[in-house]
Each structure stands twice: as C-alpha cells, then as structure tokens.
Design a protein that fits this description.
about 160 residues, about 40% strand, alpha+beta
Amino acid sequence: MGRLLTLAFLAVLPMLAWGEGYVCVPDMGVGLRYSLGTWQEGRLTPDASMKFVVRRPKEIDGTGVSEAEVIAGALGIPHTKWIVEMPSTRSTVAACPEDFDSGGRLICHRAEGEFRFNKNSLRFLHVYLGAYWDSTSDKESDQPITLAIGKCSPM
C-alpha cells in the first residue's frame, strides 16, 4: 500500500510543479508564404516544435519582477492574467489581459495575431498575421501568415 501511494504521489508531482496550465498541439493549419517571387497558399504541417503552453505568468528568477510586467512593457498588454508561449523558441506568442469567461473562453493578443482557447472543449485557434501588411517588401524571409487549430490538455 505504501509503494502504491508513493507511486501515485510521484505521478502527480510534475503536475503540482507546473501549476495550472495547458499544453496545446496543432492538428492542422493553412497559410500564405512568399516563395519563388510570389505569395502562395499552402498547408501547415504541424510538428512537435509548434506546441503552445498556456499558463499564468510568474516571477522572474527572484528579481521581484513578474513576466506580466515584462509583457506589459513589450506587448503593451497591461494586467496580463495568462501567457501563451512556444517552448521550442522560448518566445511569448500572446498575452491574455482577462481571465477565462463564464463559457471557459480565453482570448489572448499580440500585435501580429491572436490565440483563442476554450478550456471546456480543450480546443484552440492561433492566427499569425505576419509582416505582409506592415512591410514594403516581399521577402522569402518574411514570416508566413498562418491559421492553426488544435487540441489542448491540462498540464
């Protein structure tokens, strides 16, 4: 009985360390990309690097400064309640100024797009609008414009 209890505790320990949050993985996506001198449409092939993590902001390494304050300065979104990040690039994809609404919906923003998540359906939508409208040049290096959908699971 003691071993079973110990194994159960060890299985739950990673979830306690993470706290409340969600891991979201795209199922499919579409987009536009500048290639060979023209804008072309195409499918987005999701892979492990496209994973998103939705979580509460935390204090940064004992500095007394929170991620929410840094995001407010960088993205202009004050009072950030949740953040969306891509662990593969260690970048913040969006910031959520409000908490989940009564329908379980969370809407997060960034200048180049939006991330929407519903904790009841565990579905998400990520839109990246890229630099097309904000650039005077078309370059192969421009980020693609994408729309991705997928499912999330609690951490």
